[in-house]
């Protein structure tokens, strides 16, 4: 497989989305690093190539198209809008050195406030149609149901915020849940720190960016958290049961409605899931065979906040998803300076399609 073949396939895929009414767009390969750092924090440096430009300052090789497309739309796009694009993206692959760090990404994005469930179904159905010849396994999820569950926990704002921040880091999320529920002990170093009457009294000369007042505030916050009662066993059990839901869409809906009886915070998000199932069915998607996993999408880019989907290649456990995407309403609000519009989209890796075909 050559880069020329990959580029040609990417352009052909983009033309399929253009034929469906999407406007072709492009974005600069060098993107300002500040926007992505503000969105995701310093963690993005482990996934993107960062460098310094003498004029622009810190910049990144384009890690994906979605953020710059959203920025452009929120700045001067009309509504509703459908966009498509094809081009190189760059991702560091330290944890997966066998994966390409540069590859062609083809995308389709829908900005439409009229009927979010219908837009979700439109995007998924477009991808399913294009990918039908490749015998991929589709899977769906809904980050919005999980975030609603966390937002409804009877605990402090700080604990809810900590859990919400780490939804996309499952191991850290689990560690926090265990600690907040009392199932895991407080780390010995933290317990010793909090046991001191004045932890700052024996502090060494300060090295780093935090000053003494910031450290004292952090210690006060830790003391306040340590004084809080643990999360209830019932709520933790409900949240864990939610995370384990993995069934076909109709059966998942039944299961989630049962959970919502005791966890009413998710009821509205579950209703949106029901609307999406109906919209998918109206688009001709066989929802009785479409799989739903409540935890799906938690290792994706952190801007997804609702419906998520992926198309997986059976027999290729080391591969990333061949195609995937989801809803990112909150991202439009963050990049629109308070304005927002419901938005959903997805991307295809052209190189993986060529590999499935045996190369080109």
From TrEMBL:
Residues 12-341 form the Aminoacyl-transfer RNA synthetases class-II family profile domain. It comes from Ponticoccus litoralis. This is Histidine--tRNA ligase. L-histidine binds at residues 64-66, 91, 105, 109, 298, 303-304. The keyword Chaperone does not apply. PROSITE patterns: AA_TRNA_LIGASE_II (PS50862). Homodimer. NCBIfam families: PRK12295.1-5 (NF008952). Keywords: Glycosyltransferase, Transferase. GO terms for biological process: histidyl-tRNA aminoacylation. PANTHER family: HISTIDINE--TRNA LIGASE, MITOCHONDRIAL-RELATED, HISTIDYL-TRNA SYNTHETASE.
């Amino acid at each position: 497989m050559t880069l020329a073949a990959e580029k040609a396939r990417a352009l052909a895929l983009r033309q399929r989305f253009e034929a469906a009414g999407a406007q072709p767009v492009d974005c600069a390969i060098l993107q300002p690093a500040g926007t992505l750092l503000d969105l995701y924090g310093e963690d993005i440096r482990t996934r993107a190539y960062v460098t310094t430009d003498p004029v622009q300052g810190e910049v990144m090789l384009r890690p994906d198209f979605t953020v710059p497309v959203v920025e452009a739309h929120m700045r001067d796009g009309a509504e509703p809008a459908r966009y498509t694009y094809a081009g190189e993206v760059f991702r560091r692959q330290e944890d997966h050195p066998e994966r390409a760090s540069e590859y062609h990404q083809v995308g389709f994005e829908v900005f439409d406030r009229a009927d979010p469930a219908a837009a979700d179904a439109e995007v998924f159905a477009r991808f399913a149609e294009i990918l039908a010849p490749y015998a991929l396994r589709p899977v769906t999820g809904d980050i919005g149901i999980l975030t609603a569950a966390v937002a409804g926990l009877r605990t402090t704002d700080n604990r809810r915020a900590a859990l919400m921040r780490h939804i996309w880091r499952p191991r850290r999320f689990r560690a926090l849940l265990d600690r907040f529920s009392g199932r895991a002990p407080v780390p010995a170093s933290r317990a010793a720190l909090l046991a001191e009457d004045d932890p700052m009294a024996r502090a060494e000369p300060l090295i780093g960016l935090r000053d003494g007042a910031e450290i004292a505030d952090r210690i006060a916050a830790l003391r306040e958290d340590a004084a809080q009662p643990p999360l209830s066993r019932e709520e933790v059990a409900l949240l864990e049961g939610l995370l384990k839901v993995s069934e076909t869409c109709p059966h998942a809906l039944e299961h989630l409605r049962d959970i919502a009886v005791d966890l009413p915070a998710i009821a509205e998000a579950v209703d949106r899931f029901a609307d999406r199932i109906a919209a998918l069915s109206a688009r001709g998607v066989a929802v009785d065979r479409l799989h739903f996993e409540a935890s799906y999408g938690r290792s994706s880019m952190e801007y997804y906040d609702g419906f998520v989907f992926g198309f997986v290649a059976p027999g290729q456990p080391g591969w990333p998803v061949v195609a995937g995407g989801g809803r990112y309403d909150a991202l439009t609000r963050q990049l629109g300076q308070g304005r927002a519009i419901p938005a959903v989209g997805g991307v295809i890796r052209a190189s993986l399609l060529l590999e499935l075909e045996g190369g080109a």
